[in-house]
Amino acid sequence: MACMFTTVARFADPLEAHIACGRLRAEGIDAHVADAHMGLANWEWRLAVGGTRVLVDESDADFAHKVIRDLDAGAYALDSDASSGATLQAPDRESWSSRLAWIALMLFNVPLPWRRRPPRDDEAVREV
């Protein structure tokens, strides 16, 4: 029997479509992203062609719609760490040399190397 795909969601941003596709795959649904490359290469055409589509098999469409609704409602968002009250986020490793390199690139179109500030003990990445 041939697999017939149907559109379960459309996104203006192709990255959001890939996030939704990843969530659907994590739930065991065979999902695919369509028109993502066109949306990245020709960003001004994104809305004209209807955005980036997420496709699933017709038999999985109802469950996929529920997962997309839950994703939009924030059901899969990370909660804050109950022990410290902190949320999971990447540490700020911007240094004066990275700022200087960015300014040189913007003003003079000259890329410069820079060094990242090493993470402090309290910024160490926690393993989950």
Automatic annotation (TrEMBL):
InterPro entries: DUF2007, N-reg_PII-like_a/b. Residues 7-71 form the DUF2007 domain. Pfam families: DUF2007. This is DUF2007 domain-containing protein. The lineage of its organism: Bacteria, Pseudomonadati, Pseudomonadota, Gammaproteobacteria, Lysobacterales.
